[in-house]
Specification:
With about 110 residues, the protein is of the alpha+beta class. It has one domain: Roll (Nuclear Transport Factor 2, Chain: A). It contains 2 helices and 5 strands, in the order αβαββββ. Strands 1-2-3-4-5 form a 5-stranded antiparallel beta sheet, covered by helices on one side. The chain starts with a helix and ends with a strand. This is Cystatin domain-containing protein. Keywords: Signal. It comes from Adineta ricciae.
């Protein structure tokens, strides 16, 4: 048991902050990120009655929980807004691969 606690402590020390998001620039252009942006866009349309067209993924971060939380920030355009919007989506993916939008907002 002691060895397990020591190993876990070392892992946490190496990883940095416990429970926080870790920037993942390697996921900026990944197909799975594009799929999550599409999921967020549909959620924004359904929940906020706001049509947006994504332009560019700005950042992706992950957080290991009982699955993986993704925080995706992207720029978008909307016919009902002037200029660009910055949208932030938090998407949960279970270890089985099922994804759901936890939150999605544009400002």
């Amino acid at each position: 048991m002691f060895k397990l606690l020591v190993a876990l402590s070392l892992f946490v020390a190496i990883q940095g902050q416990v429970g926080g998001f870790t920037d993942r620039p390697d996921l900026l252009n990944a197909e799975q990120t594009n799929a999550m942006v599409r999921l967020a866009v549909n959620n924004i349309k359904d929940q906020q009655n706001l049509l947006v067209s994504p332009i560019n993924v700005v950042s992706v971060a992950t957080q290991l929980v009982n699955g993986i939380n993704y925080r995706v920030v992207f720029t978008a355009r909307s016919p009902s807004a002037t200029g660009f919007l910055t949208c932030t989506a938090k998407i949960y993916q279970s270890f089985a691969g099922t994804q759901s939008v936890s939150s999605a907002t544009c400002a």
